[in-house]
Structure formats: C-alpha cells, structure tokens
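Dear support,

We are seeing what looks like truncated structure output for some complexes. This example has two components. We would appreciate it if you could run it in full and send us the complete token output so we can diff it against ours.
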Amino acid sequence: MYIILVNFLKDFLKCISVPDIWVFFSHKKIALKYKDTILGPFWNVASSVFLISILSLSFFIFLNPENFTSFVYRLSISVFFWIFVSTVLNESTMILESKTDLLNEKRINVKNFIFENIYTNFIIFLHSFPIIFVLFFISDFKLQLNIIFIFLGLIMVIINLLLISYLVSILSVIYKDVKKIVENLVYAFFFATPIIWSENMVSEKIQKILIFNPFYHFVVLFRNPLMNNIDEKFYQSFFICLLLIMVVFFISLKIFKYFESKIVLYL
Amino acid sequence: MIILENVFLNYPISDKNLSLRRNILKGIFGSNIKKNSIEALKKINLKLDKGIFGLYGENGTGKTSLLKVIAGIYQPTSGNIEISGSISSMININFGFNPDLTGIENIELRLIVEGINKNHRKDLIDKIKTETELGEYLYLPIKTYSSGMKFRLAFFTALHVESDILLLDEWIGTADQKLRDKVDKLILEKITKTKITLIASHNLDRLKKICNKIIYFEKGEISKIT
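Here is the complete output from our reference environment:
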C-alpha cells in the first residue's frame, strides 16, 4: 500500500513539476474551441451573463428582493462558479476517451489530462472575474481583508475537483453508465445547491441536510470570501472539504491500484 | 535490454462486464457470467539485446500487442517485464496525432509527450519541418492530410527522438516507393544510434531485408525465431 501511495503522489507531483503536456493541451483546446469566434472564451461568460440576467429579472418580478444589486452579485458569483465546477465534472467523463489515439501510442501519465481539464476550465472561469469585480463595486459589499480567504477556498475546491475528476474519468472508461450518472447528478445538484436560492429561504431541516451536499461546501468556500462572510459556516465547509479530500483520496488510491494501469485496454 | 518472462495479455471484450448495473447485481446476488476476454498474448518469453528484430505474423496474431506491452502502454495480465533504456514508438495508425491541430502543432505535441525540453524542441521542430518536405501543409490541420503525409510527419518526428529502443508497427504501409527507400535508409542510420529496434509487419521480404532476427507470431504465441 505504501508503494501505491508513493507512486500515486509521485504522478501528481510530476504533473505539477513538469506541466508541459497539460498546459499545451489546455491552450490548444481553448484556441480550437473558440477559433473563428468573435468573443473567444468570453462566449462562456456571455452565456452565463444571459442566464444571470434572465434569473435576476424573474426574481425581481416575482420576489422583488430588498437589495437587488447585492442579490445579482451573489447570483452571479454562484452561477459563474457552478459553471466551472459542473463543466469540470461533466468533461472529466470524456477526457480519457478523447485521448484514445495518444494513449494507444505512448505511455502517458493519465493524470496530465485531469490537470488539463481543470486548467482549461479554470482559464475560462477566470474570464468571468472582470464581471464579478464590477458587480462587487456596484453591490453594497466593501473590500475587506476577508477576500484573501478566496485563495484558500479555491485551493480546497481545486484539490477536491482533481481527485473527484480522476475517479470519474477512470470509472467512466470502465463503466459506460458512469457518464450518464454524473451528468444527471450534476444537473440535480444544481437545484439542490443554494445557487439560485439562498440558505435562509429554506427550513432549518433542509439547512441541516445541506451539510451532506459537497457542492454546497464548494460554493461556500468560493462565495463567502467574496461576500465578506468568513463565519463558522466557512470554517465548517473548509473542514468538511478537507474530510472529503481524505475520503476521495483513499478511494482514488484503490482505483489507481486496480484500474489505472489497465485503462488503455478499455479505451 | 528487453526481457519478457511468461507474459500473458488478455483484452476485456464483453459489454456485459462493463455494465455498472450488472456489476452491482453481481455484487449482491453473485453471477454466473463467464469473464469475457480475449487472449492477445500467450506465454511470451523473449530476451532482446542489441539489433533489429522483426515481428512477423498475420493480422491479429499479437505483434502490435507485444509492441504496446514493451512500450508500457498495456500492462500484461501476468508475467514479468524488464526493460532498460528509453523507448520511442510509432504504433498507432494515427500516431497519436490530434486531427484538428496543424502539422507543426502535432510535431510539438509529440516532442512534449516524449519529454523533450522547450529549448531543444525549437531546434528539432525546425529540422523536422525541413525533412518532412510538407511545406505549407505543415500549417494546416492534419485532418486535411493523406495517410502518406501523416506517415511522413510521424516518421520524421519519431526519427528525431533519441531513444535506446525504437518500436515500429506496420510503419511502411502508407508510404510511396520513393519515401520507402528513403525511410529504409534513414532507419538503418537511426539503428546505429538505437540499441534495439522492433519492427512489426506482415511483409516478410521487407523484414528479411533489414532485420537481424525475425520472430514469428501465431495466435498470440511465438511460433519460431530465425
């Protein structure tokens, strides 16, 4: 088990120390995806802005929230972040299949493609930051030192996403049902996570159940620092995410041991 | 040095075994589904030191599977493998290229995957650019290339990757006669730098022309070595 642990960690560290493969693929992927479009990666932002505008308008008409600008700001952060997380998870079901030719030609550490997926979507996600920045200054929130917690939150979310997408990518090659399961789960969690609604809109009982929703904790880790809200909920989500990393890490080790070396045979 | 001892390789082929529903039910109720896999390699014992080795056999006899096992792409189902030295390969029919990227970008991709550093990559790309003689086509996506053009790109890129072991599979099939002669010459030059070269083909005459030894394959097993 010790050797497996060392090899597993070595693979991840190798990807970090020699990022050439995944950085190359990410940049080419973005360039090809948005080739010949006027907005480039900003198309993703434009789609999110469109969704946010429709949702904000609906909420304004039907609920007429007290502080509309703060409401739009909160909604925007949540939607942009959700699109990042959900795209990473959905694309991780296809990332290894899309590299079939390459993996059949050369022995490559498959974790490179997990990094590629996260890095690609993170770059696209970064394009939404100018809008978040503008909305922050329009809203009632004041710039405070708490904002630095966003780095802590993002690191925690990205480590979780790395491990979860590693699991998903391997399992979806072996079990063809996994892709559909992940797609449906991500879709369901969009409604089960306080993205278009907030925690104080629901009963205390539902709020307690929310603790079991990992996506809720991801959202809290990213959203709360941007809303000057570093309270016990943030620390609670932080520790739950830490726990989640340990659990997913343990499962990933098992997957690494039994499946990773055989993965090309299934492609 | 390549040493293979009692190497077996099974391919999983059944869709039934890949169903999550079936696996869950199997876990709960047990199952009488026979494990479906195909034996691609059976009891392979080989010790290769220096030279050019040809792997000869009809389609589906295990030549490519053996190359992939040696390249570390496939992990054998059982048996031991010992390999000392770096490996470069041309195994897959698409050479691992991305059809949407240009010729130049695919050369870069291949060099990155081979672990060549950024500074050295630049020089190599310039050399490969000239040798492929693909001219302006190098700036077009390779989905517009013919098989022969893709072969040119893959071959000259592989040629510049320094390695101790070179693995080539049905490597000459798509090239025209002029290119074949050039490739033969270059391969022989390259072999002086490479310790072990393994060439899989079903063209026995061609293998006899350039190989020191020929390993014959039949139904996943080595039938003879001459």
